[in-house]
């Protein structure tokens, strides 16, 4: 494997800046950007060489990226990437400038480092654990490159399956020597590098459970960082912490704070000490990982994931993405984050696809390094949060892209935070000249509670953007399509459909599933779903709702596509990291000079960065500029102590500016609205006017929701009454009338009347394609309502082909034979063959037969695979197949619920498809042709792949 990397520089070059004038120039750059980020501080901001970049000047991670880029441009130098995390003051930046070589940020020439690898035909599909996956690869191709770790100065480290397994087993023996018990938790607090991979699998080989924890950004903050992580270590009951040598020195400090923690060690120490034998392999149901949701330090929520959970998720994502060993994945995502750990690393491990894993700091300092890594290694897959695409748009200059080729990318997942339609459009347009194809962008949805992935679009499809009217969504939760000219419309991006084997539903406050284009809480279930939070029974109870898990997100379904509209909870997602406002409020609220209980933290979407801005709003009685400046500094310092970086904005407001409920609870959504409307600190109106406005404002939504709920209940009762009365008339008459033609003459108008009384419009098209007799009709099966609609819509007599189980039912067993239905035994092949002959005889006699070839129905939108029976019968009888497409019945009455919703239905009769031959091959062609015709019109995703 080649390790040669050449760097070209462009732009200004010359002698290093002189020290005597460099300091003042640098301070001007720092001050200008600090004021640009925090314009409220323009009059009070003081910048010196020893000001703290975070506490005093308010530079968060994205602010630091911009600062480094501006300094490089101002001085014509290239600064080391590590400076992004290590610099604490402008003096650190000045020293780096004085020591830097002339030249601008370079770009890497297109010299691929990965050699051509042979495809691996098989995969460890029978593996039950992650260690079995690694052992399978160790046996099949031990020296195949697995992970490539780009380093500084063009150096790269390559891990093969052999080197990973051997070093991990050495670490595992060291963990056993240290007394790690089976199932014991091992905290892994390491930056991106070979040690992380060895520690993670070392814990698994030792029979332990790895617990990734994000490492400190700067060495000088190790003590402070470890104190904050003590809550996670205590909750996890971690016995051993694997960390860097710098953190190793603080073991004495950490042990008393972390409960069961016995030892803090480095990978090198563990690998050198190991002599113990390895334990037996765990089972698939054993815990493989405890993933703490990013940001949860005050009230830790450790998601418990088993080997079964992880492997199910990896296989489901791989199936949807068509992943294989010929893929190459480039990632800069942190390994303590589920998207980087599971999605990027463990996924490529499973499929034997090489993974190029960069340091997150390298990407943040040089966003174009991600793009050039994709170019160099001809990557086919990658992933990033939405803000990363914005960073590439704003921070990468055209001169850094000369020669870039992104055409190898077939899928780049955009997830971990809300996806912006505008970001997708601009990124695609900007990088189209460099080979980026629109269909490579894949907005996805996932969460740690579902391992990582939950909904993905099919590969090779352009993102779907739903433009909806704002007011109906806000007022009644209806996602109504907006016209192209509507100025205030919302644009929401589809996250695709649930992964294979997983389910998503959207429910109202009463846990009833909602129909199409109705916003509600997103719930999910599937083999990837966690069994709960580690040692947190209260949060686990909140997570589950009758066999489903609550995502905490709001969403709606349209055409089988999932559209996430927001979050139920107050959590803020900034640059892909979850931030819990309560934790920040608790610390910042103690700052002297702030009114107690009057500090609120919330997120506000920033279209420039593509992520959320973190805003701290706090009340104070101080009014003097000097006092406010000092108070601002202390608030930022307190926030940094919790977050490791400052909030984007601190708003110090007069008393009574923070909105609260009557019981004194903070109203974060209301605070965000006041902030975005610029009304914080506005002079209050008269008391009587406020009371009147609040009363009216509260009455309208309460009355609207109450009336809507009552209306839905009344409609459901009325709907079932109509159906019961219709059935009460139809059943005895069908049983008693002597002729089948008379029975059908009664049923059709009754079915039409029932739909009309239910308020369900029925649009029928394509009846001219319906043969008078002698045809096989096949229809998609979306609801128990389908048969009623078919009876109402189709002229003449139609013989339904039903499963034999219905013949044994009291109601259906008497009714269906009287209207000419035929029954098929699916479980007993011998009986099924006899039934097939009866069906063939009826078809040859000229009767029109109707099959539901899916064989069953599901609650989730989608067209399932077709069974072959109808198509074999058509070929043997020499009859055409007529595809019939139903649309809208699923939204009215889903397969596993009995609460109907209002909606409209359409039915289309497609053109007959004659058999083009004989035998099994002809039946397959008929099936595929009919299914393609129905799939094109049903408006639902393909679940049959």
What would you say this structure looks like, in words?
The protein has 945 residues and is α/β, with parallel strands linked by helices. Among the domains are: 7-106, Non-ribosomal Peptide Synthetase Peptidyl Carrier Protein, Chain A (Orthogonal Bundle); 456-567, Luciferase, Domain 3 (Luciferase, domain 3), CATH 2.30.38.10; 580-679, ANL, C-terminal domain (GMP Synthetase, Chain A, domain 3); 716-938, Glycerol-3-phosphate (1)-acyltransferase (3-Layer(aba) Sandwich), CATH 3.40.1130. The chain is built from 30 helices and 38 strands. A hairpin with a 2-residue loop joins β24 and β25 (548-558). α24 (740-757) crosses α25 and α27 crosses α28. It is globular. The two termini are 37 Å apart. The relative contact order is 0.06. The model is unreliable at 1-15 and 108-112 (pLDDT under 50).
Q: In the CATH hierarchy, what is the architecture of the domain at 716-938 at level 2?
A: 3-Layer(aba) Sandwich
Structural classification: alpha/beta
Strand percentage: 15-25%
- What characterizes the major β-sheet? 7 strands, mixed
CATH class bucket of the domain at 716-938: Alpha Beta
Radius of gyration: 32 Å
Might you state the CATH topology name of the domain at 716-938? Glycerol-3-phosphate (1)-acyltransferase
How many alpha or pi helices? Answer: 30
Please state the average pLDDT score: 84
CATH homologous superfamily of the domain at 716-938? Glycerol-3-phosphate (1)-acyltransferase
Q: Which term fits the overall shape?
A: globular
Spatial order of strands in the largest sheet: 6-5-14-13-15-16-17
């Amino acid at each position: 494997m080649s390790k040669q990397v050449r760097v070209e520089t462009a732009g200004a070059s010359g002698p290093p800046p002189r020290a005597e004038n460099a300091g003042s120039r640098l301070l001007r750059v720092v001050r200008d950007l600090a004021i640009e980020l925090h314009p409220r501080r323009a009059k009070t901001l003081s910048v010196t060489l020893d000001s703290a970049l975070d506490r005093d000047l308010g530079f968060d991670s994205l602010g630091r990226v911009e600062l480094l880029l501006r300094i490089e441009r101002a001085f014509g130098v290239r600064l080391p990437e590590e400076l992004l995390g290590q610099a604490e003051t402008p003096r650190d930046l000045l020293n780096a400038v004085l020591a830097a070589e002339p030249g601008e940020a370079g770009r890497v020439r297109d010299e691929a480092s990965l050699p051509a690898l042979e495809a691996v035909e098989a995969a460890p599909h029978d593996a039950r654990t992650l260690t079995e996956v690694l052992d399978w690869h160790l046996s099949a191709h031990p020296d195949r490159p697995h992970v490539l770790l780009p380093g500084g100065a063009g150096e790269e480290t390559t891990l093969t399956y052999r080197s990973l397994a051997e070093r991990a087993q050495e670490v595992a023996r060291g963990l056993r020597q240290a007394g790690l018990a089976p199932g014991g938790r091992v905290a892994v607090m390491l930056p991106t590098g070979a040690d992380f991979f060895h520690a993670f699998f070392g814990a698994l080989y030792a029979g332990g459970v790895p617990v990734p924890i994000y490492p400190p950004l700067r060495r000088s903050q190790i003590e402070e960082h470890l104190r904050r992580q003590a809550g996670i270590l205590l909750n996890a009951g971690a016995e051993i912490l694997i960390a860097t040598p710098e953190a190793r020195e603080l073991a004495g400090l950490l042990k008393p704070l972390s409960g069961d923690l016995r030892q803090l060690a480095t990978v090198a120490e563990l690998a050198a000490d190991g002599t113990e034998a390895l334990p037996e392999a765990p089972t698939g149901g054993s815990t493989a990982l405890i993933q703490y949701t990013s940001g949860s330090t005050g009230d830790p929520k450790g998601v418990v994931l088993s080997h079964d959970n992880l492997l199910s998720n990896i296989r489901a994502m791989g199936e949807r993405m068509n992943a294989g060993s010929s893929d190459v994945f480039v990632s800069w995502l942190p390994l303590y984050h589920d998207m980087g750990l599971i999605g990027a690393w463990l996924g490529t491990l499973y499929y034997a696809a090489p993974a190029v894993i960069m340091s997150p700091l390298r990407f943040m300092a040089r966003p174009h390094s991600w793009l050039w890594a994709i170019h160099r290694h001809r990557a086919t897959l990658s992933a990033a949060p939405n803000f990363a695409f914005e960073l590439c748009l704003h921070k990468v200059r055209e001169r850094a892209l000369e020669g870039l080729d992104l055409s190898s990318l077939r899928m780049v997942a955009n997830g971990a935070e809300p996806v912006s339609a505008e970001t997708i459009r601009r990124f695609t347009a900007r990088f189209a000249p460099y080979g980026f194809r629109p269909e490579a962008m894949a907005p996805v949805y996932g969460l740690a509670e579902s391992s990582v992935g939950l909904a993905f679009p099919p590969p090779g499809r352009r993102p779907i953007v739903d433009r909806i009217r704002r007011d109906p969504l806000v007022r009644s939760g209806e996602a109504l399509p907006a016209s192209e000219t509507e100025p205030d419309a919302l644009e929401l991006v589809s996250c695709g459909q649930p992964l294979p084997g997983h389910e998503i539903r959207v429910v109202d406050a009463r846990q009833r599933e909602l129909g199409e284009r109705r916003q509600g809480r997103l719930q999910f279930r599937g083999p990837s779903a966690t069994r709960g939070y580690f040692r947190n029974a209260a949060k686990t109870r909140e997570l589950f709702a009758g066999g489903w898990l609550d995502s905490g997100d709001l969403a709606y379904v349209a055409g089988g596509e999932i559209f996430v509209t927001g979050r139920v909870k107050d959590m803020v997602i900034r640059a892909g990291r979850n931030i819990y406002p309560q934790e920040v409020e608790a610390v910042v609220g103690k700052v002297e000079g702030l009114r107690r209980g009057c500090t609120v933290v919330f997120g506000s979407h920033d279209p420039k960065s593509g992520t959320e801005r973190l805003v701290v709003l706090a009340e104070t009685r101080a009014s003097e500029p000097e006092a406010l400046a000092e108070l601002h500094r202390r608030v930022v310092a307190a926030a940094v102590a919790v977050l490791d970086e400052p909030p984007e904005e601190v708003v110090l407001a007069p008393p009574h500016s923070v909105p609260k409920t009557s019981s004194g609870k903070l109203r974060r959504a209301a605070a965000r609205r006041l902030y975005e409307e610029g009304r914080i600190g506005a002079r209050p109106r008269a008391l009587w006017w406020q009371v009147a406005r609040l009363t009216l404002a509260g009455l309208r939504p309460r009355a609207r929701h109450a009336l809507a709920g009552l209306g839905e209940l009344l409609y459901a009762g009325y709907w079932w009454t109509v159906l019961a009365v219709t059935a009460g008339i139809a059943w005895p008459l069908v049983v008693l009338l002597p002729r089948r033609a008379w029975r059908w003459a009664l049923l059709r108008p009754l079915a039409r009347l029932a739909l009309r009384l239910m308020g369900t419009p029925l649009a029928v098209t394509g009846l001219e394609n319906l043969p008078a007799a002698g045809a096989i009709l096949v229809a998609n099966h979306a609801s128990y309502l389908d048969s009623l609609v078919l009876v109402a819509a189709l002229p003449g007599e139609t013989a339904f082909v039903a499963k034999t189980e219905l013949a044994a039912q009291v109601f259906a067993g008497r009714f269906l034979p009287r209207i000419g239905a035929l029954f098929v035994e699916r479980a007993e092949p011998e009986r099924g063959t006899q039934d097939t002959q009866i069906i063939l005889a009826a078809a040859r006699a000229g009767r029109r037969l109707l099959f539901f070839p899916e064989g069953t129905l599901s609650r989730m939108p989608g067209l399932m695979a077709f069974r072959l029976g109808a198509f074999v019968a058509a070929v043997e009888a020499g009859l055409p197949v007529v595809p019939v497409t139903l649309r809208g019945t699923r939204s009215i009455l889903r397969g596993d619920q009995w609460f109907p919703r209002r909606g409209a239905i359409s039915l289309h009769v497609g053109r007959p498809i004659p058999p083009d031959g004989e035998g099994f091959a002809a039946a397959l062609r008929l099936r595929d042709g009919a299914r393609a015709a129905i799939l094109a019109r049903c408006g639902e995703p393909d679940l049959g792949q």
